[in-house]
Amino acid sequence: MEPVITPSGRFYNEDCVSGARRHIASDSVDLIITDPPYGIGGDDLHQHYNRDEDYVIDGYIEIPASEYGEFSRDWIREAERILRPGGSIYIVSGYTNLYHILKALRETGLEEINHIIWKYTFGVYTSRKYVSSHYHILYYQKPGRPRRFNLESRFGLGERDPDGGSLNYQDREDVWIINREYKPGQIKNKNELPTALLTKMIQYSSNEGDLVCDMFLGGFSTAKVAVGLGRRAVGFEISPQIFAARADDLKTIRPGSLLPTLRTPVVDARANRGRPWSDADKAALKTRFDHLIQSGRTKKDAVEIVARELGRGRWAVEKMLKTLEASPLTPSQPRHIPPASRSGQPPRTSPERTQTPSRNPP
Questions:
Q1: At CA 138, angle to CA 136 and CA 143, rounded to 5?
Q2: Going by C-beta distance under 8 Å and a sequence separation of 6 or more, which residues neighbour residue 242?
Q3: Which of the residue ranges 62-71, 267-276, 302-311 would you say has the lowest mean pLDDT?
Q4: What Å distances lie between residue 355 and 177, 191, 358, CA to CA?
Q5: Residue 336 reports pLDDT greater than 70
Q6: What are the pLDDT digits (tens) for 75-91?
Q7: Fewer CB near the last or first residue (10 Å), C or N of the chain?
Q8: Per residue in 211-222, pLDDT tens?
Q9: DSSP labels for 269-321?
Q10: What DSSP assignment string belongs to 29-69?
Q11: Which letter, b or e, does each residue of 36-60 get, where b requires 16 or more Cβ atoms within 10 Å of its Cβ?
């Protein structure tokens, strides 16, 4: 089939390895998010998920278990080639063939950042073992340049829940509880990633205008969300039936249409955030913090006040206080100057000992 070209993307009905070699330059992709075939008999997924297949698009192409190792090495090596230095890749995987994907990753120069667990509802039904209700998300980077990670793209560092917990910290923990999307009566692919999951990865690891690639387009979910968030997209789908059924959906996606739906984080722009601590900064922190504690403030309040006054982040202040507690700041000792020399007169020497003048008098 002919590729689908839009102002924000290029999508090909081709194998991702040979297709990427033809259509994508080396070191040109900012972010890869992909959900490869799981190698578990995808044509029978409805038996595991208790799902009516009437609305599921035919044409799913599964990878035989005996070929999964070589298949993983081939496409991951190509993903490494097209990813720019400093770019990120997220690979969503089940458990069955996770070993092959990890092994393939370790044969590249890609570096692990996090192994994320995505927990969801509608898990695989079982009666003689525990219910499987999670996937693995392998988050890696290509070294060579600083990696993009938008720390406060979703929650500001100072935002708190009703119990005082950090919303930013909670959102960045490596266990994500995001439900699957339930689409009764709607045309769907065998396994589609939810918009909330894709939005989270794209927000943290890319900026508007960046190029996002999906090596296995499937239902085109990654491409749709990427374009909706103002990114550019490129990808591959080998199945003619799936490509024909879903590719035209991209023509109706308005670039940036999802941006108004995003939550606006409350970001406190601290003037000195990220700046190294000087000895004077450390001394000021310790003096002010001790004064606040002595005046009856709680530790939590004292940290907040000092962070605001010094233009620092709360975590940076807490970390430095712990450092100072473990290794107290030692004041610089002034050089000893003999009293007589302060008046400009040479120091006196005792009759018993004659002092040899120094080439560099104090």
A1: 175
A2: 57, 59, 60, 189, 217, 218, 219
A3: 267-276
A4: 77, 88, 9
A5: no
A6: 999 999 999 999 999 99
A7: C
A8: 999 999 998 999
A9: --TTTTPPPPHHHHHHHHHHHHHHHHTT--HHHHHHHHHHHHT--HHHHHHHH
A10: EEEEEE----SS-GGGHHHHHT--GGGBPS------GGGHH
A11: bbbbbeeeebeeeeeeeeeebbebb
Task: Give the integer Cα–Cα distance in Å for 279 and 202.
Answer: 39
Residues with Cβ within 8 Å of 146's Cβ and at least 6 positions away in sequence, in order, are: 86
Location of structure tokens 């079982």: 126
Task: Indicate the angle between helix axes 221-228 and 195-205, nearest 10 degrees.
Answer: 50
Q: In this structure, are residues 15 and 76 in contact, taking their beta carbons and an 8 Å threshold?
A: no
**Contact by Cβ (8 Å): 187, 245:** yes
Cβ neighbours for 64, distance < 8 A, ≥ 6 positions apart: 39
The pTM score is: 0.75
**Mean pLDDT across the stretch 281-304?**
92
Q: Could you tell me what percent of the chain has a pLDDT over 90? A: 62
Average pLDDT over residues 312-328: 89
Where b means 16+ CB within 10 Å and e means fewer, 278-315 reads eeeeeeebbeebeebeeeebeeeebbbebbeebebbbe
Q: Is the pLDDT of residue 328 over 90?
A: no
Contact 89, 141 (CB under 8 A): yes
